[in-house]
Amino acid sequence: MNTQTVNRNGYLIDQVISKDNDYQELSPHERYLKRQNRKKNILKATIIGICVCVLSAIIKYFIGVMSNSLAIESDAMSSLTESYSYIISTVGIYIAHKKPNKEHPNGYGRIEFLTAIIGSILVIIAGWHYFETSFKRILAPQPSSVTTIQLIIIGVTILGKLFLYFDDKKVGKEYNSAGLITASRNALLSTFSTVLVIFATIVYREFHIDIDGWVGLVIASLMLLTGIIGFKNGISSIIGKPIKASVGNSITNILMKYPPIIGVYDLRVNDNGTGILRGTVNAEVPADTIAEEIYLGFRKAKTEVYRKLGIDLTIGLLTVNYCNDQIFPIYQELQKELNDLEEIKNVHGFNWNKDNNEVDLHVLVDYDKLNNEELDDKIQNLVRKYIPDANILTEYNVNYLENQPKDSPVSCQLD
Fold first, then answer.
1. Handedness of CA 306, 309, 310, 315 (dihedral sign)
2. Residue 276: in which H helix or E strand, if any?
3. Which of 23, 178, 312, 403 could, after both became Cys, cross-link 245 (CB 3.0–4.6 A)?
4. What is the pLDDT of residues 172-201, one digit of tens each?
5. Are 250 and 257 a contacting pair, CB within 8 Å?
6. Which pTM value belongs to this model?
7. Which of these three, 239, 263, 291, is where a domain ends?
8. Close Cβ partners of 9 (under 8 Å, ≥ 6 residues apart)
């Protein structure tokens, strides 16, 4: 990427130029087909996961019962719990891809996040059960007898779990599937658990040291940890996460390409599941811009954002008028003093209507500074210091990006 400075109506703009191959440009129909393909590939992955986990659980359970090994039985239950998660995910995928209706105008996509939470709860329940069982086994050890053939069979199941780990991780990241990403973690846990079981068996056979209960305790603890992490991630997806800096920068770069936009602020993006993203953003334009020019610029920017990033973006309007001989010197001093306040990250959306002495102002603050009367008084006093008796409309915004934004790319060039 490189940067160039362009001049729009007296505003100098530092514009980042992105190469076309930075994005995958798709039409609305192509994005629809991509969502259908997403459903197909995720369902394929979950069905394979069910088959591998159920087969692995059956093999391990019977070997565990025959050899009186609690560690192997725990590992079997871990695999069975995984299959439940896959089954729940399969049902969730079908529901999540249902079309929107009057009852649910935003669709059913967030069901995916709910299935990830349910799957994680099942892992936590199973983990707690075997944590208690393993602890009892430590207090009252029982000998186990695993044959070499049984040990080899258990080892073969590792290959199946490794396949699930890599496949689920790949498909989950490619299609942003919370359920499959959780499943990939469970598959990796199961692989590690099986390795521990084999290690415990070899230790007992070679040295007659019974660590079966301890291994079961470790497996149960890992199940609890994995379940808690999956539960936390699922809740975070439903509540909402910060926007990735790369996504925020891409949206900003696209919008700044289109006149009359001279500044981009207050970006929000919501993940509705199944690859459907919706967002809002405020764009600054000079106050004297005609409506038709604003409409054309916004429409082109919105279209490119959807085609390249798959985000259905609603663009709000901020008109600014600080780039003229009379207002700019006042705004420059006011902006400097406002930015010097520790609580304020940046100032934008400044518009002074001299006819009714009304000032419209947007400030970016931290979450704990929202609805702060002391800060509001500071802003009011500073504005009235430069614009006496002003009627001030201040809007407080917070940062929805994972990183703090840079300074405004807009400056003025006066004749």
1. negative
2. none
3. 403
4. 888 888 778 878 887 887 788 788 778 877
5. no
6. 0.78
7. 239
8. 260, 262, 286, 288, 289, 323
